[in-house]
Specification:
Layout lengths: L8 E5 L17 H11 L4 E5 L21 H5 L6 E2 H8 L3 H11 L2 E5 L2 H6 L5 E5 L25 E5 L2 H12 L1
Parallel strand pairs: 1-2, 1-4, 2-3, 4-5, 5-6
Length: 176
């Protein structure tokens, strides 16, 4: 069955895994961003949070890079109105990849970080906001910028950001 919500769905597609040279996380949405976003949008939207976490090993993730502990799932315990991909997996008895596709297909708006999750997210939703950390090697690539060719995948509006506060402010202007 479909993901049921009486509100439009916003998906946050995050990551927190080793990448690039020193194999530490560079490009991810911070705990401050996640909490601020929930406080701004959870009254009007069903927020669904996606991030592969090494504690949940039901299924591989892209290139089998397992996520590290950001503390986000602990934070989300304080916000039971936010669903996670693991909630959907458990409810629907499906794996990570299928759950991710079903969530994105049901999403009106998507927030992602640079990388594979941004490419996948670009197939769904009306607006796809992509965050790139300033110190991440991949951030300067044109693919993550506003109006990049990713829009050709589904017709979604692709909006690139280098600042989390600017991302939230733009989301407020467009979605509230």
């Amino acid at each position: 069955g479909k993901i049921i919500s009486n509100k439009p769905i916003i998906t946050i597609n995050n990551k927190y895994n080793p990448e690039w040279g020193p194999k530490i996380p560079f490009n991810y949405l911070s705990l401050d961003f996640i909490e601020s976003f929930i406080k701004e949008f959870s009254d009007r939207y069903q927020i669904i949070y996606i991030r592969h976490d090494k504690r949940f090993k039901q299924e591989g993730y892209y290139d089998d890079v397992l996520g590290l502990d950001l503390g986000d799932y602990k934070l989300l315990e304080s916000y039971p109105q936010v669903k996670t991909i693991y909630d959907i997996m458990e409810t629907k008895k499906i794996g990570f990849n299928l759950a991710q596709l079903e969530i994105l297909a049901a999403s009106k708006q998507v927030i992602s970080v640079n990388g594979g999750s941004a490419c996948l997210s670009a197939y769904f939703g009306e607006d796809v906001m992509i965050y790139g950390a300033k110190d991440c090697k991949s951030t300067p690539r044109g693919i993550w910028k506003t109006d990049s060719w990713l829009k050709e995948l589904s017709g979604a509006n692709i909006l690139g950001f280098l600042d989390e506060k600017e991302l939230i402010e733009t989301a407020k202007q467009r979605w509230l």
